[in-house]
């Protein structure tokens, strides 16, 4: 089983544990990898399935949407954004914890900044939503994070704020069309879908 960084934090481990409770003599190999390496291993038939938050494109890969995630605003405990009606403009004017330009969060944040005519103030650039949560919890700035990373962080020093009309992003299962999933693999995918629904409903 391969996974993106954010789906590796809680979603895939929970689904794997559920699978192993049902198939207690089974063994699962699990690795969180960058998108490029996920594609390489699946194409080479060295892995059975991937759970990815990024769309993967290759002629031999079958990519199916299995759920969606959205963005939350993450701020230090007691921040001025907390406990009030969410003000996107005010949040964007804070010192921001940002991502590399190719991250899906970056495209959304850039669009918001452009629409509102706000100049970006970067405090820290990180590579993952989990790292963004850690930075926000420590008081380094305000972040816009995927809810899977935010829910996995669960720090008492972090406030998670829902963003009205925030965009949603797909989570995908990815397999090789030449390597049909076993019964174990199919059961794992069902577990992933169920655990995703449970996680999203929990906040």
Tags for this entry?
9-stranded mixed β-sheet; 203 residues; alpha/beta; 39% helix; single chain
Please outline the helices and strands:
Elements: E1 2-3, H1 5-9, H2 11-22, E2 31-32, H3 35-43, E3 50-52, E4 61-76, H4 88-92, E5 96-98, H5 104-116, E6 122-125, H6 129-137, E7 142-146, H7 147-153, E8 158-162, E9 168-176, H8 183-201
Parallel strand pairs: 1-2, 1-3, 5-6, 5-7
Antiparallel strand pairs: 3-9, 4-7, 4-8, 4-9
Helix pairs in contact: 2-8, 6-7
Brief rundown of the structure:
The protein has 203 residues and is of the alpha/beta class. It has helices at 5-9, 11-22, 35-43, 88-92, 104-116, 129-137, 147-153, 183-201; strands at 2-3, 31-32, 50-52, 61-76, 96-98, 122-125, 142-146, 158-162, 168-176.
